[in-house]
Amino acid sequence: xxxxxxxxxxxxxxxxxxxxxxxxxxxxxxxxxxxxxxxxxxxxxxxxxxxxxxxxxxxxxxxxxxxxxxxxxxxxxxxxxxxxxxxxxxxxxxxxxxxxxxxxxxxxxxxxxxxxxxxxxxxxxxxxxxxxxxxxxxxxxxxxxxxxxxxxxxxxxxxxxxxxxxxxxxxxxxxxxxxxxxxxxxxxxxxxxxxxxxxxxxxxxxxxxxxxxxxxxxxxxxxxxxxxxxxxxxxxxxxxxxxxxxxxxxxxxxxxxxxxxxxxxxxxxxxxxxxxxxxxxxxxx
Length: 285
Prior knowledge:
By secondary structure, this protein is an alpha/beta fold. 36% of the residues lie in helices and 13% in strands. The chain has a 6-stranded parallel β-sheet with strand order 2-1-5-6-7-8, sandwiched between helices. Strands 3-4 form a two-stranded antiparallel sheet. The radius of gyration is 19 Å and the shape is globular.
């Protein structure tokens, strides 16, 4: 299950989501409706149209911002739990109404009995990374997590408590520019090293920016990239390959699957761009 970042939506991570789905993973991208998305919508109360949910614009990192993010995190966790409920219904063959595609041709009962729910994994980018940490502590059905360049502002008063509440494997993939600007690397290292008996892995991909884990670099022209902050020293295609390779290695490891050879090869090929990863020591880097 994937939680999007601040100002994003469920469609902005299709390059990662579709790659994982192409390897057999069931991927659910949540679109949060607590005004953190760029925009969202739901069917209107009369059922004849759509009700738009606008983005709540605040000065990021301000004192005004903090209580709003804390409240949004609480709503996000409830949405994740409802998302898991829905996946369980799909797997059980329970009739589910697709309110966005009424009368559509895709039969949701095709998912009956084919989803492995033994070890759901929660992951998120930026604010979705903070959401992932809280989700792992609050929702017992999630068995592992992955943080993509997490923005931890909404956890500034509670992150010290989370290590004791989270006893699940965790992967963190940082983009060099963002983790440096946010000065969160020391905080992440302290968090990840606090439970030595739990597998917690972190790496940073050099020459990358925050948007390298989204579709933005692929959807903007060369002229627009500087305006949108998606220009990176490490190209978007290489960054995407590395992000997905590390993610797949982690997921296969957690699910007890054979680690994919192609992912090993990608990490080897670009090893100078990736800070050393603990569980790659003997076999890859």
